Amino acid sequence: MRDFVKIHTSPFFLVNFLFFLLIFCLIIIRVVPIQAYPALDITVKTDKQKYYAKDALQVYGNLTLDGVLVPDGLVGIQIQTSRDTLLVIRTLSTGNPPPETPYVFLEYVAPCDQNGDPQFSFRKGTLANFKVSIVNFDIEPRDALMTINTYYSDNSPFGYASINTTIFPSSSATFVISIPIPADAVLGTANAYANAYTNLPKLAGTPYCSEVNATFQITDTSSLIAIQTAQSPPPTIQQTDETGNFNLTLPFPRKIPYGDCTVYVTARYLGESIFNSTTFGVYQLGDLGSGPPPTFFDFDGAVDAFDFTLWKACYDGVAPPEAMYLGDLGTGPPPTFFAFDGIIDSFDFALWKACYDGLGP
């Protein structure tokens, strides 16, 4: 009996006993899996999949952190046309000012002459100049992309310019940026929005700070026309709880190529960056609807006999008032697309025929 006890209390026995005890404990202990959520996420949508020129575009989405809406973020948004030309570049707020002090901060944007002196009106067909002041609060130099996007009083975009620069540590700088005003520009009050990014949003660049804006006048030889049209209400950025954290609504300029456009959105919050994108379509010029029977606004992507019937209704003045603009494709002589004159005549028919023949823009 003495030998039996000695064998089973040996170190070898104790090691094996502890080993099997450990295995038993691991088996009976229930390991609860940890569910991880993406730290920062951003969504982006449009209210429709396809639009006709002059439709109102609505872009909206959410910025969330661990699944919770972020009430104090900044979202950079960039919209590119089907020809990859820039249409919109803006910075939207999801509510309150960001919790972090920005490394780079825009102080103001102001209309000016080429020397940077104040100037508040510009003639169509000339250059509009804007003076932008920017500050770098960091102790290191910062590269910044400064952009200006201009809009008519109805909030439709018409111009864009940018400049890349390096801002020295703890210093400020001013720059003059010029944007061409179209020869057929809408007269009256216009708006300029300036922003600073690490890079273009389409390249995953994020906003440094909130945007700044200024108003100016577009005139021609008659200043009275400019004064009368300046009474239009200023544009707004809608931000509602119905669609999420950010919501941008604007009408399309009619001078926009058909095809697929792309919306890029970016954000940086508490040191983390996020990027997303979506697409939408723009219907072909000359496509007024479809049939049978010929029906306005039922766009099908084709220019055919049904569209001619609808165009003829515009020409005869029997189309619904809200559809009359569809028949105005330009003016002449010679017939010129996008030179809209508010009249539907033989020049517009020549332009519609070019669309029918596959020769439109």
Would you give an account of this structure?
- By secondary structure, the protein is mainly beta.
- The chain folds into 2 domains: 40-282, Coagulation Factor XIII, Chain A, domain 1 (Distorted Sandwich); 289-356, no CATH class.
- Helices cover 15% and strands 39% of the residues.
- A 5-stranded mixed beta sheet has the order 3-19-18-7-8, with no helix packed on it.
- A hairpin with a 5-residue loop joins β7 (74-80) and β8 (86-93).
- The longest helix is centred in the first third of the chain and has 18 residues, at 11-28.
- Residues 1-8 and 222-244 have low confidence and may be disordered.
Described by its quaternary structure, the protein is: single chain
What is the CATH architecture annotation of the largest domain? Answer: Distorted Sandwich
For the sheet with most strands, the description reads: 5 strands, mixed
Spatial extent as radius of gyration? 30 Å
Q: Write the CATH fold name of the largest domain.
A: Coagulation Factor XIII, Chain A, domain 1
List how many beta strands DSSP finds. Answer: 23
Average pLDDT for all residues: 85
Tally the structural domains.
2
CATH class of the largest domain: Mainly Beta
Give the CATH superfamily of the largest domain.
abc- transporter (atp binding component) like domain
Residue fraction in strands? 35-45%
Strand order of the largest sheet: 3-19-18-7-8
Briefly summarize what is shown:
This protein has 361 residues and is mostly beta strands. Helix content is 15%, strand content 39%. A hairpin with a 4-residue loop joins strand 20 and strand 21 (295-296).
